[in-house]
Design goal:
65% helix, 4 helices, binds zinc ion, 0% strand, mainly alpha
Length: 142
Amino acid sequence: MTTKSKKVSSPPSPIFRGEKKKQYEMLVELRDQLVDQIRTISSHSLSSSKQAGEELADVGSDNFNREMELGLMTEETQRIKAIEDAIKRLHDGSYGVCEDCDNKINPARLEALPYAKLCINCKSLREKEQRDSRNAPARIMD
Ligand SMILES: [Zn+2]
């Protein structure tokens, strides 16, 4: 007796259709890539700390490398969080809408940055504000 039941293990995702499905798959893929990267980095820093035990002279530079790797990991972790936020917005229907002005984010921008929360206008406005507040003297009492 032959059982021809091919078990295709697909993730529980086919709730989205068309454009949304594409966006969802892109976000998931991006997240998986980042998770993989972090796994590579963390396994690398584990093995390098093992070596440091044998070569005490290199401990200093090894610490430096690990700090850099940890910094990178923090950045990647934040990006993963942003992607997961975007997936949530895809679920509740607010994906692709600017957080600040409620306008639709340009599709080309979403393609370049699938987890973008702001439209290009608000993004550059915020960056300008950040630059200004960094350059300007503190005016907390105004
Ligand atoms: Zn906006």
